[in-house]
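Deliverable D4.2, example record:
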Amino acid sequence: MVAVALRSGSEKWLFWLILVVHGVAILIFTKGFLLTRTELPFYSHCSDAASQSPCFSNSNSNSSRCWTKSSIDRLVIIVPDALRFDFVAPSTFFEESKPWMDKLQVLQRMASKRGSSARIFKAIADPPTTSLKRLKGLTTGGLPTFIDVGNSFGAPAIVEDNFIHQLVQNGKRVMMMGDDTWTQLVPNHFKKSYPYPSFNVKDLHTVNNGCIDHLLPTLYEEDWDVLIAHFLGVDHAGHIFGVDSGPMIEKLEQYNAILEKVIEMLESQSAPGGLHENTFLLVMGDHGQTLNGDHGGGSPEEV
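Output generated by the structure prediction step:
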C-alpha cells in the first residue's frame, strides 16, 4: 500500500510539472511570435516644433509651414502588386535567366540611360506579406505582426498617422485607382477614387483595365497632386497560374506597355512650363511572391 501511494504521488507531481511547462511554453509563444501592436491616434502637424526632432536644428524651425520644402510638384505612384525583384532587374543580375525576366524593359532602359535621375532599388518588405498589411506598413511606416494576418480579409480604417493623411492635411489633392484596399484603409481622403474589388483572384483583368481606363486620361488633368494606381494582374496571375506561366508573362508585358505610355506622356509634358515639368514617377511593389504565387510569409521570395 505504501509503494502504491508513493507511485501515485510521483505521477501527480509529473503531471503538474508537464502542465506547468506547457503553460509556460504557450505563454512564451503568444508573447513572442503572436505580438500585438497598439495604434496611437496621434498626428504630426506642421505647427509642431521642428526642434523636437534630432534631424532639424533650431534654425529650421518655423511654425507657419512644414519643416522642409518639397523638391517635386507632383507624384505618380504605380503599384504592381506582388512585384518580384527579378521582374524588374536585368536577367544579367542573376545566375540563371528565367522566362519571366526582362519583361519590364522600359524600366531597365530608364535606369541605364537616365543616369542619376532613374534608379532600380531592391526593397525588403517586413512580413507578413499580405497586401493589406504591406499597404498599411507602407503608408504608416509601422511593422505588422503575424497575428494581424487574421484581419487581412477586412481593412479597418487606419487610425494612426500616415502619409496619405499628411498629404491631405497639407492641402495636397490625392487620387487613387485600382485595389479597393486603399479606400478601406484611408476613407474620405481621396479627391477622386476609382476602386475595384481585389479578392477575386481568378479575375486577372478587371482591376488592371480599370487602372488603364483612368490612369492615362488623369495624367492630362491638373486637379491632382498625387496619383496612385494599384494594379493586381500579376498578383492574381501568380495565385492561379504561378510565376512561370503564360498568363504571368502576358501581364508583365501589359505592365511594360502601360509604363511606356505613362513615361512617354510625362516626358512630353516635362518641358519648362509643362504640366509635368517637376513630376516624380515611383514604380514599386508591395511584396513579392513565391514561384507558386504565394505570399504572406517571410521567405526571401515573398519579401
